[in-house]
Design goal:
The protein is of the alpha+beta class and about 425 residues long. It is about 40% helix and about 25% strand. The protein folds into 3 domains: about 190 residues, FAD/NAD(P)-binding domain, CATH 3.50.50.60; about 90 residues, D-Amino Acid Oxidase, Chain A, domain 2 (2-Layer Sandwich), CATH 3.30.9; about 50 residues, no CATH class. A hairpin with a 5-residue loop joins strand 12 and strand 13. Strands 1, 2, 5, 6, 7, 8, 17 and 18 form an 8-stranded mixed β-sheet that branches. Strands 3, 4, 10, 11, 12, 13, 14 and 15 form an 8-stranded mixed β-sheet that branches. The protein has a 3-stranded antiparallel β-sheet with strand order 9-16-19, with no helix packed on it.
Length: about 425
């Protein structure tokens, strides 16, 4: 009998397991993969997420694995340039984008060192319910082996957007917003000097690039769903054409210098959603409980933040500090409150076009380095939104940028700029 079973050992599951094992609980982690194992990902970890790795004593391992430090962002959105970097968060003055074959193995090994039992290559096929209707375990098998059943006080689903745990317990989705686009990406050599770019053009297309392990750059494109048929007809040509469209000079460099080292990978992601993240004997974390468009690269960071939050609440319930239901209800409330700003910002930016208010504000922000770095700090998770979007902050932004009074917008619901 375990205290906790965690289904899924990647960026949300292993941190939860590690934290709970460190607290003295008996923890089992199962995952269908065997590590090191790759998975579709943006790889991007914002400074707020790196702060968690630092707290857990794992950031140095990520850096030691040869993950390049990135200290400048080149962000362009429909003609607005933000070039700079966020101020340090907890002393962290860079971002890192580790390959998942690197990051996930570090996290799984950390869970093991903390005392969690890890079974790799184990596929969960069902959830076990007790006579009272509460979840009390899982069934599954390792490889082609016999079916096995494990029991626990709580089962945590960290098994991604298509979570079997969420499906079996009937977790309901809410605040659903349609997905806007699709991604193609791969890894390229020959682009060592490119650094971090995140750029959107005027034709509902975007490309991004950032260095990762092995001397490679991840290069990705996003286009609106209406363009999927065109992309599928010739992905290689459309991939290069997207970079040409958004940044012609980089498109030329890409064609001349880039060497693709792995297959081009498509990713059609599901709609944005929240799921009810807990019930009798179960909880959800990471993409199993909350998913948003990958455009802002907040998936891993939120997995760390919410995993840490859930581990604290589950520990309270298991330790008798307060009833488990009360602790998990607080997790639900805090998760939704603390992620709301990122969710709104991400789903707006993923449309690849800006409403007039945000176009006006970001255009003004890009005029000064101070406000550029402040905005990049908001994106990084270190600056609260009121420091930019409160009326008095907007007034200062417009004053510093020299925006005429008639052109200033203060209401996110504004439909057009003044003449």
């Amino acid at each position: 009998m375990y205290d906790v079973i965690v289904v899924g050992a990647r960026v949300s599951g292993s941190p939860v397991a590690m934290r709970l094992a460190q607290a003295g609980h008996r923890v089992l982690v199962v995952d269908r993969a065997s590590f090191p194992s790759d998975v579709v990902s943006t790889h991007y970890i914002h400074q707020a997420g790196l702060s968690k790795l630092q707290d857990w004593g794992l950031l140095d391992e990520v850096i030691a694995a040869g993950t390049p430090a990135i200290r400048q962002m080149n962000f362009r959105f429909t003609g607005i340039d933000l070039i700079g970097f966020a101020d340090p968060i907890d002393g962290i003055d860079a971002v890192y984008c580790p390959r998942r074959i690197v990051l996930d193995e570090i996290l799984v090994n950390a869970a093991r060192r903390a005392g969690a039992e890890v079974i790799e290559g184990f596929t969960v096929t069902d959830v076990v319910f007790g006579d009272d209707g509460a979840v009390c375990g899982v069934r599954g098998r390792q490889g082609d082996g016999p079916e096995r059943e494990f029991r626990s006080t709580i089962v945590i689903g960290a098994d991604g957007t298509h979570s079997l745990i969420a499906r079996k317990v009937g977790a309901q989705t809410y605040n659903v917003r349609p997905a806007s686009g699709f991604i193609y990406y791969s890894y390229y050599s020959g682009l060592e000097d490119w650094g971090l770019h995140h750029k959107t053009g005027f034709s509902e297309r975007w490309f991004g690039t950032w260095p990762t392990n092995g001397g490679l750059n991840m290069v990705a494109t996003i286009a609106s769903k209406a363009q999927l048929k065109t992309f599928r007809a010739d992905p290689e040509a459309q991939f290069a054409a997207t970079i040409d469209d958004v940044e012609p000079e980089m498109g030329r460099q890409f064609r001349e210098l880039a060497r693709r080292e792995e297959p081009l990978r498509p990713m059609r992601y599901p709609d944005n959603y929240y799921r009810q993240p807990w019930g009798p004997g179960w909880a959800l974390v990471g993409d199993a409980g909350y998913h948003k468009d990958p455009f802002t690269g907040w998936g891993i960071t939120d997995a760390f933040l919410h995993g840490d939050m859930l581990a604290d609440r589950v520990n309270e319930g298991l330790s008798g500090v307060r009833p488990m239901a009360e602790a998990l209800a607080e997790y639900h409330q805090h998760r939704d409150e603390e992620s709301a700003g990122v969710y709104d910002f991400t789903t707006m930016m993923a449309e690849l076009s800006l409403p007039p208010f945000f176009e006006t504000v970001l255009g003004a922000i890009g005029k000064t380095q101070h406000w550029t770095n402040k905005m990049l700090g908001l994106i990084a998770g270190g600056v609260p939104d009121y420091e930019i979007f409160a009326p008095e902050a907007l007034e200062q932004i417009y004053n510093d940028a020299g925006v005429p009074e008639a052109k200033r917008l203060y209401d996110p619901g504004a439909t057009e700029a003044a003449a």
